[in-house]
Every structure is written in structure tokens, then in C-alpha cells.
């Protein structure tokens, strides 16, 4: 028991320290998102600390403070979703509608005011008391599942959105948050165990999982690059593209003649000038190069080429990579060199994209064409 107490105290302390670091991020990037994540980590750590406080009889000596800590658990799930929302939105700002997420916390806090004032719980009829107890027992698990699901769907939407405006997504796809959600799902399962089943084996490993989750978030959150590197004017231009759920059905902005002219300019830029070789190419840069708007060039790519921006650009990069792989001029390059020469930023992304578009890996492509590469 003492080991569990020490481990949970260490985890909570690490969480509070990480919360401070995220709130005052050394690189000052993704500011709002990191601050909401910081607040989430703070209240998660407070919930973890609750375990150690019971061992120290804190609930006996300071029952009111302990009760407040218990009520604060109803903030954890909404804060997770809000932090993910800020990471994945163009403006990375808090949406006022999210204030409704804190209603359960406020209702329960108001419900417990008589206890803080008199030291006594509200009294109900036996049947009503059972209903109230059941609601309080189920509210936290339901809230956890609801906001976990919303967070998962938000990250899926983010993957679609960055494909609409970015050619290289490996540094901004927030995959680590998807993995963190899997850890959170495991924590939710453990919470269910503590509430309903009390399986000893799961309880034994709970503190280790908490500690791992804190270090996992700390490692990736502090290393996360800025997700959307756009100015205010550019964000306004991209907002309709990102928020549109069905791009081909967006209001037609160009006549057929204008669409054809812009498409011809796009083809020349990509096939002749090889603009796709720009490693940091995005929709805004492409629009500026063609002297048009992101919305218009996005419309042309979606309408005429039936692809999003990311797939459209990477199709040209893979064609270029195939040429390089079979060219005698590049025999001294390895796979990484070919990847960078083709416009990619990493070997992993290159391999994944190559297999997705070509149907085979770069190595298999070489074997198929009887070529050798380092």
C-alpha cells in the first residue's frame, strides 16, 4: 500500500510540474491549446492525488477540501476535449459553447453547497435518494465516454482537414493525441473497475499507467510543432475549406472558363515547373503562386481532379520518386535521399505514401525493376 501511495504521489507531482511547463511553454507555440491541456493535466493530477490523500486520512482531517477535489473530477473529461479542439482548430481558440461542458460540475457544486455550509448532506426520500445516488455514480463514466468519443471524432476530422491544406502532415497530424486517447480509454476501463468491479489486478497497475500517461503527454506535447502556421488573413481564407464537410458541393466560385484557365495554370506549374518539390508546400503558397485564392484552387483540385490537396501533390511526388529510383543519375542516393529529392520531409511518410499510391513499397518497386539502392 505504501508503494502505491508513493507512486501516486510521484505521478501527481509530475503532473503538476508538467501542467506548469505546458502553461508556460518554453517555445510559446500552440499557446491556447497547451494552456487548456495544462489545465486538463492539473485536474487529472488532482484526481490521481486523491488516492494518496485517502492514505494520509486527508479526507478525515479536511473533508471540505477533499470534497472539492472529488467534485473537480467532473472537469477532467470536458477539459480533455477542449484542449484537443484547440489543437485541431485553425484559430486554436476556446469556443464559448464549450462553457456548457462545465454544467455538470456547476450543478454538483451547487448541490453540495449545503454540505459545505452545515456539514450535512441534503436529505431525500429513500426512492429519490437511490435515484440521485445512481445519477451521481453514472454521470462521471458517461461523461468520460462522451468526451472521449467527441475527442476521437475531432482528431479524425483533423486528419481530413490538414489533408485539404497541407502537403506534408507528419509533423502536425497529432498522432500522439490518438495514442494518448487509447491510454485514456484504458484509464476509463480502470475507473469502471474501481466503481463497479474492484478487480485487484487492475488496481495494482493503475498508478503505473497514470505515471506513464503523464510522461507520455509531457514528451510529445512539449515537442509538438505549431499545427497551423498561418496569419489571421490566411486563416479566414482557409476556414471555409476546413469547415466544409463536402468540398465538391461548395458553392461554385468560378465559371467553367475560369476553372479551365486556372486548371491549365495549375498543370503547368506542377508538371513543368515541378512546384510540388517544395517541401513545405501548402494550399496558401500554391494559391499565391497562381495569383488566386485558396478557395478557388481548392475548388479546382476537388472538382476536376477529384482529390484533396495532399493527395494531389503527393501523386506528383511519387511520380518523381519513381523516375529518380530508376535513374542512373541518382544511384548514389539512398531511400532517404530520394524522399527529400521528391519533396517529402521524412522516410516514413515517403514509404507510406509510396505504398498508398503505387500499391507497393519503394524497395519492392526497385526489385520489380531490377534496380539496387542503398
Automatic annotation (TrEMBL):
GO molecular function: DNA-binding transcription factor activity; sequence-specific DNA binding
Chain ranges of the HTH araC/xylS-type domain: 264-368
Record-linked InterPro entries: Homeodomain-like_sf, HTH_AraC, HTH_AraC-typ_CS
PROSITE patterns for this protein: HTH_ARAC_FAMILY_1 (PS00041), HTH_ARAC_FAMILY_2 (PS01124)
Top-level taxon: Bacteria
Keyword terms: DNA-binding, Membrane, Transcription, Transcription regulation, Transmembrane, Transmembrane helix
Stretches that traverse the bilayer: 6-24, 36-58, 64-87, 99-119, 131-155, 176-199, 205-222
Signal peptide: none
Protein name: AraC family transcriptional regulator
Origin species: Flavobacterium franklandianum
